[in-house]
Specification:
- The structure is a single chain.
- The protein is an all-alpha fold and about 500 residues long.
- About 80% of the residues lie in helices and about 0% in strands.
- The chain is built from 18 helices and no strands.
- Helix 12 runs parallel beside helix 17 (about 425-450), helix 15 (about 365-390) packs antiparallel against helix 16 and helix 15 (about 365-390) packs antiparallel against helix 18 (about 460-480).
- The two termini are about 25 Å apart.
Length: about 500
């Protein structure tokens, strides 16, 4: 749960005269759901944009280059390199700014860069490139303009990733804590919780903060996963009646339209929780890892081990990623079946977020983490065996089931850091930022290996590497939990 100093920071009356006092009085009587609704809606629209782009882009590239993993992995590498190098600089610049202007700036840069990248990528047509073995072969056999266009789009996607990363940290990791803390003040004043009872209002409201934060975290993840279920089917249906290029243009129009709505919703969030407009934007890059390490060591042992394990999980291709989609398409899996897989993966993750609070309540937070990630490890092993034996459908089933444990574990790991036992008010901010940077490096390593093993026939080697990383992560979690609770398995 958030540290008491953080409660003092968020709930202390602002110095602003009668207007500020009146605002404090009004929000005391505002129900937690009303405070959270603009945040949920903002997150919903961002998820639709991100999920649509994440599904359509690798599908378009794998259709243009059906026998190569190079294009999908190169796009991922560009985005990751740009994010690792430039996101910290963006965050440091925004630290000097206050108010919603910084949010609007990030939002504008994010949408302009992704729209420009999309406009470049629509220049690729399957009829021109499908007979080639990859981008380099296509450039040699036709024109280097395709090559330059592709890498220019990669640079723009790197800018998009930078802005998106800071926005994600701000909304999902910071604004949720602010809203939960303020909502807990409303609970203590009106005697009811977000679920309609006051059973969690103990210890001066501290338990209420943890309870509401857990619910907000769970709902934010459920929104993300629910969108992930609907989007693949929607895009697949659109592709039946149009071309990749036409659907890409539709997605770019969607980005332009929703950017205005998201800006308005951000303003509404700050009406109910003005502290969101002044909350820190923290993103630890390579240059600030030393500071992040000091903050990391302030966490309890179990939280440190889980952060390390969580980072290792990003060294994996056993996910509904572009690389997996390219491999499935090369093995004859249709667009509709690929969309079904993506949706089933999200449903499994959705179920994981629904059951995560139950795992936490019945096992305790420290025991729930190894239990849920252990489920992921088991099914990842099944997927590895299926891939090696060329059992594509069994691989798809195991991939789906593995996401249940992963998303349940994601909530456990997040709350282990957010509860801030023994940490100051900014520790979890820096840890999350450093965790993101380290996870990006793991993702970059995966992309670079995939660029080297660029044939779809080499995907099994990537799966073996991924399975090893997941197994090591599980052993790390068990080691961290051993000193706190008996291992659940």
């Amino acid at each position: 749960m958030p540290h008491s100093d953080q409660l003092q920071q968020y709930l202390a009356p602002p110095t602003g005269g009668s207007a500020s006092t009146q605002h404090q009085h009004q929000r005391k009587h505002l129900c937690p759901w009303a405070m959270s609704l603009p945040l949920y809606t903002l997150h919903l629209l961002r998820c639709i944009s991100d999920r649509s782009w994440a599904f359509l882009l690798p599908l378009h590239l794998s259709t243009c280059f059906p026998r190569s993993l190079y294009e999908v992995s190169t796009v991922a590498a560009f985005a990751t390199i740009g994010s690792v190098l430039f996101t910290p600089r963006i965050a440091l610049y925004l630290q000097k700014r206050r108010g919603l202007g910084r949010f609007y700036l990030l939002l504008a840069l994010e949408n302009m860069s992704v729209m420009a990248a999309g406009a470049l990528l629509v220049q690729f047509h399957p009829s021109d490139t499908a007979a080639t073995d990859g981008l380099l072969d296509a450039a040699e056999s036709s024109t280097a303009v395709l090559d330059l266009t592709f890498y220019a789009a990669g640079v723009l996607l790197a800018v998009d990733q930078c802005c998106s990363g800071v926005l994600e940290n701000l909304v999902v990791k910071e604004w949720t804590v602010v809203v939960a803390t303020i909502a807990s003040g409303s609970v203590r004043n009106d005697g009811s919780s977000e679920s309609g009872d006051n059973s969690d209002t103990k210890d001066g409201g501290m338990t209420s903060v943890a309870s509401i934060l857990s619910k907000i975290n769970s709902r934010m993840s459920q929104i993300d996963l629910a969108v992930g279920v609907v989007v693949p089917f929607t895009v697949s249906a659109l592709l039946k009646y149009g071309t990749d290029t036409g659907v890409l243009w539709m997605l770019l129009l969607w980005h332009a339209t929703t950017a205005v709505v998201i800006a308005a919703l951000a303003s509404q969030v700050c009406v109910h929780a003005p502290e969101c407009a002044t909350s820190s934007v923290v993103d630890a890059g390579l240059g600030s890892m030393r500071h992040a390490w000091l903050e990391f060591t302030a966490l309890p042992r179990v939280a440190r081990y889980n952060v390390a394990a969580y980072i290792l999980l990003y060294l994996s291709v056993i996910s509904p990623s572009g690389l997996t989609m390219a491999w499935l398409r090369a093995n004859g899996v249709s667009i509709t079946s690929t969309a079904t897989l993506r949706s089933a993966v999200q449903l499994a993750g959705f179920a994981g977020t629904l059951t995560a609070p139950t795992f936490i309540r019945r096992l305790g937070l420290e025991a729930a983490a190894p239990a849920t990630q252990g489920l992921q490890t088991f099914f990842v092993g099944m997927a590895c065996v299926a891939c090696l034996s060329q059992s594509v459908h069994i691989f798809m089933v195991a991939l789906v089931l593995s996401r249940f444990g992963l998303w349940a574990y994601d909530l456990c790991e997040r709350q282990l850091v957010q509860r801030g036992d023994g940490a100051n008010a900014t520790t979890h901010q820096m840890v999350f930022a450093a965790e993101r940077s380290a996870s990006q490096l793991m993702g970059l390593a995966t992309s670079l290996v995939a660029m080297t093993l660029s044939s779809t026939d080499d995907y099994a080697i990537l799966v073996l590497i991924s399975t090893t990383a997941v197994l090591v992560a599980h052993c790390t979690i068990q080691a961290g939990s051993y000193s706190t609770v008996p291992p659940p398995f």
